[in-house]
Each structure stands twice: as C-alpha cells, then as structure tokens.
Amino acid sequence: MNVNVGVPAQAWDAFVTARSAPHVLQTAPWGALKSAFGWEAERVLLEEEGRPIAGAQVLFQTLPLGVGKLAYVPMGPLVDWEDAPVVTALVECLAAVARRRGAIVLTIEPDLEDHPRWKERLGAAGFVPSPLKSVQPRRTIIVDVSPDEDAILAAMKPKTRYNIRLAERKGVTVREGSVADLPAFCALMAETAERNAFGVHTPAYYERAYGLFAPRGWGRLLLAEVDGAAVAALMVFALGPRAWYFYGASGSAHREKMPPYLLQWEAMRWSRSLGCTAYDLWGVPDADEETLEAEFDRRGDGLWGVYRFKRGFGGRLMRTAGAWDRPLRPVLYRCYTLALRWHRTGG
C-alpha cells in the first residue's frame, strides 16, 4: 500500500463521490470552508496498485496555550470498517501525518451508527472515547425520501402534513435563492438566533459555504416568501444518496402561515430530484426516543425546540458513534483531556 498526502481537491472529490455513501463533510469544499475560518485541511489517500482504497480529510487547529494541534476528521475516515488491515494501515498513516503537523491527538467522528461492533473496531484501531463533546450532533432524524411523494407525506405526523398544506393555501411560495439573496438569509439567521438564544455563524461563513457548494450542485439556498418578502430560508446540501439540512431560519412575520414546513418539504423534493434516498434533518437532543417523546412538549432549551419541529417529518432516530481519540503525545494529551473536563464542569 502507498500513501498519498496532500491530495489535490479534484482528485480527492473524485475519490469521495465514487464511494457508496460519501459524506459532504469529507469533501474538498468543506475543507476549503473550514480553512477560511481557522482550520487547515490535509487530505490523505491510501492506495493499492495505484487505486485509492481509503482516505480522510483531516482538519488541523492550534490548541490554546501553544500545547500543539488538534487533528480532527469529521464524518470520516472514509474506509471499509469491516476491512481490519486497511483500517489499521490508514489509521497509522493518519497518525503519522498528524504527528508531523504537531498534533497531540487524532480525533475522529466516523460516519458510523452507535453500535458495540463499531466501538470494538475503533478500540482495536487504538482509539478511546473522547472527552471532547462531539463537534457534530450525535443524534439526528433520517427521513426516507425514496418512496413517492404521497408516501413520504403519509409517513409524517398529521399536524406537519397539515402545516405544509396550510402554508400552500395561505400563499407561501418557495423559490431557489441566489447570491443576491444571501443578505436576506443572514438577516433571518440573526433574527432566529436572537429569538431562540443560540449561536450562528457570521455572514461571511454562509456566503463562503454557498459559493463553494451551490455552483457544484451540492448545495441550494431556498427561500419561503409571502408577497415577495422572505419569511424563512434554509441551506441544504446533497451528495450521493444523502441530503443534509444544516442551516435554517425563520422570521417573526407570517409565522402563522407555517413557512418553515413548506420550506422543508421543498428541500426534500429537491433532494429527491437528485436521486437522494435519505434526508438528514441534522441534530436533535441526544436522548433516547422514549425521553424525547416524553419531554419535547415541555422543553425548549438546546435542541429541544427543533426536535418538536423535526419529529413531525417522520423518519427514524439515528445516533452516531461519536468522537474517538487516538492520543499522539500522551503527556500533553492528558493535560488536554483534563482541561476539557475542567471546562465542561465549569472549573
């Protein structure tokens, strides 16, 4: 096996898109997006007889106090986890690259479901559960968008189905946005953040995300309007058989017309037009279904408010394996984990 470090973007994306289940967070545009906001991206391919068989896009960030760097692999690496020799070879390559870049730990959040089988495989590859709170949401709702539209609608909660039709009756329309619509999208994001007290990215971040993904057909900005004015908007991404709803917002005007419901439905329809079979609503509280259903109607903190909205679209709850660490410099890693735990408990 040969190792190819610093793979050019075009070659890397050819490898990613050729996989049966590529993830948008492992694409070169995502690396470019994060590189514009404090990270550095490095792409590593493991090849056999000139053919790429596994790889990872690694994001590097300098840790506080100059102790070293964090090497982070979002929704990767891209490898057949059933093939233990290849997993071992790839992990050793990634660890070597990370050490050379000054990383004290290699943290991965693999695109795997939370299952004992995968935990055993991760442990065998030298990883331990990370004290780092997962960067990406561990639990989400996946909507099957492979059936026809009537079947997808039938699988939704009655109230959600009603709200989609209500929005249509009340004159809400949805259209594809362009660069010119990004200020309206960012204004809606800011309004939503203020209303619900959660953090959002800067306008520059959303502008860069749109510019990197929309021209490729891997992303789309959708706006819900009433009488020509934007009242809700979202940014959706798609690659291979999956689509992801990452960013969404709604204003205070015309909320009684339920524009976010029609907006999500149109995003699902767009993903189906590309051949996607799964629509990832991306992020709900990390609790089991029984707890979620028992508490969603009386909690509004964190992701509880969005769960109340997202659950209506049907789908299945899915929990990922979470973040796993491969310590590279044991002494510094212990200091790093102690600092994380101290920060988590408030000092």
The backbone outline, from C-alpha atoms, is: globular
| Tally of structural domains | 2
The low-pLDDT segments are: none
Q: How many strands? A: 14
The CATH topology annotation of the largest domain reads as Aminopeptidase
Arithmetic mean of pLDDT: 95
Give the terminus-to-terminus CA distance: 46 Å
Helicity level? 25-40%
Q: Any idea of the CATH class of the largest domain?
A: Alpha Beta
Number of helices: 12
Radius of gyration: 21 Å
CATH architecture of the largest domain: 3-Layer(aba) Sandwich
Strand order of the largest sheet: 1-2-3-4-5-14-6
List the helices and strands in order.
EHHEEEHEHEEHHEHHEEEHEHHEEH
- Within CATH, the superfamily of the largest domain carries the name Gcn5-related N-acetyltransferase (GNAT)
Main pleated-sheet profile: 7 strands, mixed
Structural class: alpha+beta
Please provide a brief summary of the model:
The protein has helices at residues 9-17, 28-35, 84-100, 116-124, 149-154, 158-169, 182-196, 203-213, 259-273, 289-295, 304-310, 330-344, and strands spanning 2-5, 40-48, 51-62, 69-74, 103-109, 128-129, 139-144, 173-176, 219-226, 229-239, 242-250, 278-280, 316-319, 324-327.
